[in-house]
Specification:
42% of the residues lie in helices and 24% in strands. The chain has helices at residues 20-30, 49-53, 61-64, 78-88, 107-115, 127-140, 154-161, 163-180, 203-214, 243-256, 260-266; strands at residues 13-14, 34-39, 42-48, 66-67, 71-73, 92-97, 100-106, 145-151, 185-191, 194-199, 217-219, 222-224, 226-232. The strands form four sheets. It has a four-stranded mixed β-sheet with strand order 1-2-3-4. The longest helix is centred in the middle third of the chain and has 18 residues, at 163-180.
């Protein structure tokens, strides 16, 4: 998923010396919510309908526009575009193909698109989005790590406290994941009580993250722990592996790390 597929507005230009009143009329005529400010062939700002409402109509565009707009390549991954918007606190980015500006992508469109890949219960991404992340990093030849997180004895929680409480535990655990991760981490609920993190952090930081995840924690007065299967996504042994194959291997590693009593219960032993 790249921003070139999500361009929501074609570029419409105005110069910085025009009046805000003229800009407002031009937006109405063109049916757009923003104009790109172009002076002598250089993009110098973006003017939005919100900018127009914040100043007197007799002022000029230069007084109302947001200067030095952020431009991104059309090949930018959608998740990275969202991060750029959040970092710079902007709602629009200019999309370029080389030196040529092609259009504008908005935060609203990006968020709506990503919303289709969100898990309804936890608000985390679903596995389909993580596969996009995986393929994107592989295409860039970029270093990344895969963590497969499997909650221990979650079935017992459902049996003892009921499925609604189990759902609440999953929601609280998802919030914990959000709190201990950062912009270098992509998180998803893979299914049931299983979660996946794809991270571009340094190995030492990932090791600390794994340690945090494997330590017993208290969620809603319930002691919770997890087994974490780790794979270096850049390991040449996995160079030709698909997302599904990598997740399967990480899953098997997490299973091998589960406490012995968990395995006994699994096989009906006492």
């Amino acid at each position: 998923m790249k921003v070139e597929d999500l361009i929501s507005e074609q570029l419409q230009y105005i110069t910085s010396g025009k009046s805000v009143q003229y800009a407002a009329r031009l937006m109405d005529e063109l049916g757009v919510n923003s104009l790109v400010v172009n002076d002598q062939g250089q993009i110098t700002g973006i003017l939005t309908s919100k900018d127009i409402r914040s100043v007197h109509p007799n002022r000029i565009v230069a007084d109302a526009m947001t200067g030095n707009p952020i431009c991104i390549p059309k090949s930018t991954f959608i998740g990275d575009a969202i991060s750029i918007m959040e970092q710079h606190q902007v709602k629009r980015l200019i999309v370029k193909d080389g030196n040529h500006a092609e259009g504008i992508v908005t935060r609203e469109v990006l968020k709506t698109t990503l919303g289709k890949y969100e898990d309804l219960l936890t608000g985390l991404y679903r596995s389909a989005y993580m596969e996009y992340v995986f393929n994107h990093f592989v295409a860039l030849n970029r270093m990344f790590h895969i963590l497969f997180i499997d909650l221990n004895d979650f079935g017992l929680i459902n049996k003892k406290h009921g499925h609604p409480v189990g759902d609440d535990v999953l929601i609280h655990f998802s919030t914990l994941l959000k709190n201990i991760t950062n912009e270098q981490d992509y998180i998803c609920r893979y299914g049931g009580d299983e979660f996946v993190i794809i991270s571009t952090r340094k190995l030492q930081e990932v090791e600390k993250l794994i340690q945090q995840l494997t330590e017993p924690m208290h969620v809603m007065n319930i002691t919770l722990s997890a087994a974490v299967g780790y794979i270096n996504g850049f390991d040449h042994n996995y160079a030709s592996s698909s997302f599904r194959e990598m997740i399967s291997k990480a899953s098997m590693i997490s299973t091998s790390l589960k406490p012995a009593y968990d395995e006994h219960l699994l096989h009906g032993k006492h």
